[in-house]
Every structure is written in structure tokens, then in C-alpha cells.
């Protein structure tokens, strides 16, 4: 695993995450040492270790660190060796996953964001990520099944294609809803689906199609 150094602001952020209920020490360690400022416009770098979502262009945001930590911690409660991420965005969540999971597959519908994220991950020497420009609603069927799927935008309803790409016993972490959004943990056991609602969230919408 690539090792990065920590900083005072990063340690303070981790303290905030602990107080908010994040207990997984691996997740906290990776968030503390991953340079979040590299995943946002330079003009916002001074806000990198605030617990807030920030704009990254193209109508998208880099998620609030607490939400990244929460979704990653939920995923890490299960044995996941291969994970599909829907919505690469800045690549920050991807970088967190890449330091905790053996193989990460990430789909992004906006080509410019995907290009920028790929360059950031390469610069950080994170090479266990495969990236694809495409429609997140469709997932990445040729690489399925996945032990885990993490969706970083809110779907109006759970995409059936993603459910079908979960391995038996696999877990999906996904925000669902339009005006009212709820974070859902979905487990697949054969043809049986179990869902657990975690709480209210706010994400950009999971849009169908792709942009060049």
C-alpha cells in the first residue's frame, strides 16, 4: 500500500470523524494521510480538510469527508476484494478505496473528470484501479461480479443492472431518492435482496448517459 504523510489539518479532520462515529482505524488512517487538496481546484485547497463537500466543476462535488468515511466503513464491514465505484468524480473516494481494497473498478460519465482523476491516481502511485468512461446506471458488466459496489451519486431508484453485477453475498452502498435521499446498504443472497436504511443524505443525482 502506498504510504502518504499526515498533517495537522488532516489529524484534526480525523478527530472530527471519530467524534461523528467513524471507528474503523484503517479508514481513518487512510483519510488522514491522503492529500485531499490534490483532488480539488487549487483555489479551494485551503478548505481541503474541512468536513464539507466542495465543487470540482461540471456541476459535480468532492464528497464531504464524513460521507466518504461512512460509506467506506460500511463497505469495509464485508469481505470485499473487488469493488465497483459508480461516479469517479475527483477520484478522492477512488483513492481511499484503492488503499483498502485489492482491486477497484470505477465508472465516470464525464470524460474530463475521468481524465483528471486518472492523472491524480497515477501521480499518487495508485495502480490497482481500472477506470471506464460510461453510464454508471449500466455498471461494468464485463468485470462483474463484484464483492462490493459503492455509488457516489443519488439514484432515483436502485439500478437493476448494478444489483445483477453483485456477487452472491455482495454489498452495495447507494444513496437513493430525489428530493428525499436515503443511504441504503443492499445485500444480495442469490435472488434474495436485503436492504438496510442508514439515514438521510444529500448527493448530486446519478444521471444516465455519458458526456465526452
Automatic annotation (TrEMBL):
Per the UniProt record, the lineage of the source organism begins with:
Bacteria, Pseudomonadati, Pseudomonadota, Gammaproteobacteria, Alteromonadales
GO cellular component terms, A-Z = cytoplasm
Indicate where this protein is primarily found: cytoplasm
Q: Which PANTHER family match?
A: PROTEIN-L-ISOASPARTATE O-METHYLTRANSFERASE, PROTEIN-L-ISOASPARTATE(D-ASPARTATE) O-METHYLTRANSFERASE
InterPro entries registered for this protein in UniProt: PCMT, SAM-dependent_MTases_sf
* Catalyzed chemical reaction(s): [protein]-L-isoaspartate + S-adenosyl-L-methionine = [protein]-L-isoaspartate alpha-methyl ester + S-adenosyl-L-homocysteine
Tell me the Pfam families matching this sequence.
PCMT
Name of the featured protein = Protein-L-isoaspartate O-methyltransferase
EC code: 2.1.1.77
NCBIfam families to which the protein is assigned, alphabetical? pimt, PRK00312.1
Q: Which family, according to the similarity comment?
A: Belongs to the methyltransferase superfamily. L-isoaspartyl/D-aspartyl protein methyltransferase family.
Keyword set, alphabetical order:
Cytoplasm, Methyltransferase, S-adenosyl-L-methionine, Transferase
The subcellular location is: Cytoplasm
Q: Where is the active site?
A: 63
This protein's record includes keyword Transferase: yes
Residues in the signal sequence:
none
GO terms for biological process, alphabetical: methylation; protein repair
- What Gene Ontology molecular-function terms does this entry list? protein-L-isoaspartate (D-aspartate) O-methyltransferase activity
Q: Report the function annotation for this chain.
A: Catalyzes the methyl esterification of L-isoaspartyl residues in peptides and proteins that result from spontaneous decomposition of normal L-aspartyl and L-asparaginyl residues. It plays a role in the repair and/or degradation of damaged proteins.
User: Could you tell me which species this protein originates from?
Assistant: Idiomarina aquatica
Amino acid at each position: 500500500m502506498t504510504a502518504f504523510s499526515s498533517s495537522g489539518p488532516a489529524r484534526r479532520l480525523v478527530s472530527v470523524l471519530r467524534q461523528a462515529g467513524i471507528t474503523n482505524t484503517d479508514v481513518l488512517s487512510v483519510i488522514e494521510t491522503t492529500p485531499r487538496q490534490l483532488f480539488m481546484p487549487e483555489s479551494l485547497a485551503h478548505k481541503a480538510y474541512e468536513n464539507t463537500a466542495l465543487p470540482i466543476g461540471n456541476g459535480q462535488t468532492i464528497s464531504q469527508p464524513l460521507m466518504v468515511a461512512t460509506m467506506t466503513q460500511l463497505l469495509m464491514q464485508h469481505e470485499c476484494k473487488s469493488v465497483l465505484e459508480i461516479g469517479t468524480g475527483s477520484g478522492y473516494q477512488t483513492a481511499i478505496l484503492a488503499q483498502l481494497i485489492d482491486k477497484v473498478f470505477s465508472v465516470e460519465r464525464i470524460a474530463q473528470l475521468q481524465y483528471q482523476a486518472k492523472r491524480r491516481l497515477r501521480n499518487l502511485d495508485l495502480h490497482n484501479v481500472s477506470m471506464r468512461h460510461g453510464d454508471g446506471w449500466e455498471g461494468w458488466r464485463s468485470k462483474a461480479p463484484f464483492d462490493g459496489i459503492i455509488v457516489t451519486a443519488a439514484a432515483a431508484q436502485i439500478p437493476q443492472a448494478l444489483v445483477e453485477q453483485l456477487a452472491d453475498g455482495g454489498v452495495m452502498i447507494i444513496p437513493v431518492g430525489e428530493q428525499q435521499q436515503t443511504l441504503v446498504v443492499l445485500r444480495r443472497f442469490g435472488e434474495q435482496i436485503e436492504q438496510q436504511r442508514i439515514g438521510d443524505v444529500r448527493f448530486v443525482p446519478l444521471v444516465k448517459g455519458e458526456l465526452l
